[in-house]
Specification:
The protein is of the alpha/beta class and 257 residues long. Helix content is 34%, strand content 16%. It contains 8 helices and 10 strands. It has helices at residues 10-22, 60-68, 91-101, 129-151, 165-179, 197-201, 226-230, 250-256; strands spanning 2-4, 26-28, 47-52, 78-84, 106-113, 156-158, 186-188, 207-209, 215-217, 236-238. Strands 2-1-3-4-5-6 form a 6-stranded parallel β-sheet, with helices on both faces. Strands 7-10 form a two-stranded antiparallel ribbon. Helix 1 packs parallel to helix 4. The chain is globular.
Length: 257
């Protein structure tokens, strides 16, 4: 069983690719009624988690899911794959600690470098097309490598932490969570055509169209930016920080390559 969370499609692609190669079921964390379900893992089946790195740590929705996940028996092999535009910091340590608190052992972990999607700070933007092509091409090779290791039930942590990983994950990440996770700066410009694609794209159903057809954001945003990247008119803005920046969706970009 492989659980995943994805905003713009990168982690979904990785999870589905691994599921196909390993012949394992794949489920979207955002669709699971976690409080009501108990999962039974068949003998020998692995338990995997695929998710993006948010400010050098796993997304809160993933951590909450793990804490609430109920299994009929302890898994024999647990792994994770995190996707990131560059480095993952101490994501592996944070994930392994959460799994250990469940009484399980994280046996393997990997990072996969994918196209950048974070655009909500100065200096952050999507990658140029040639870099998107390069990253996706190399990610396909990386997925093949990871699937071979998982099939062999390898025990290793193979993540690119980058420079100053402890500072990024344990100092910068909490600051990010405290100051940059609010959905309040989101707004729709006058170019919004009320198509509803942002509402459909939101994995946690945090967006609803108001009476006049403009999107309104609720309070449980994950800052995945699926709404921003899905808007066909580029009408969604996060304060003034996203103006004149690019958009990226895996499905669209993969077709264009």
């Amino acid at each position: 069983m492989i659980f995943y969370f994805s905003g713009t499609g990168n982690s979904r692609w990785v999870a589905e690719s691994l599921g196909k190669r390993l012949e394992d079921a794949v489920e979207d964390i955002a669709d699971v009624k976690i409080e009501k379900e108990e999962y039974t893992l068949p003998e020998g089946e692995i338990l995997g988690f695929v998710f993006p790195v948010y400010a050098w740590a796993p997304p809160t929705i993933v951590m909450d899911f793990i804490s609430l996940l109920r299994l009929s028996s302890a898994p024999k092999y647990v792994f994770f794959v995190c996707t990131c535009g560059d480095d993952s910091g101490k994501t592996a340590d944070i994930f392994c600690k959460a799994v250990k608190e469940k009484g399980w052992e994280c046996n393997a972990g990997f990072s996969v470098i994918i196209p950048n999607t974070y655009v909500s700070l100065p200096g952050f933007d999507v990658d140029p097309l040639h870099m998107v092509s390069k990253k996706l091409r190399e990610a396909k090779e990386r997925i093949e490598y990871i699937s071979s290791k998982l099939a062999a039930r390898a025990r290793l942590i193979d993540c690119y932490e980058g420079a100053f990983p402890w500072i990024k994950s344990y100092l910068i990440h909490p600051l990010f969570m405290h100051t940059l996770m609010s959905p309040k700066p989101f707004k729709a410009a006058d170019s919004c055509i009320s198509c509803g694609l942002c509402e459909k794209a939101c994995p946690v159903r945090n967006i609803h169209l108001k009476e006049r057809g403009k999107p309104e954001w609720g309070s449980h945003c994950t800052m995945c930016l699926a709404c921003y990247h899905s808007c066909p008119k580029h009408a969604i803005e996060y304060s003034c920080l996203t103006q004149k920046k690019g958009q990226y969706l895996f499905d669209k970009s993969n077709k264009e390559l």
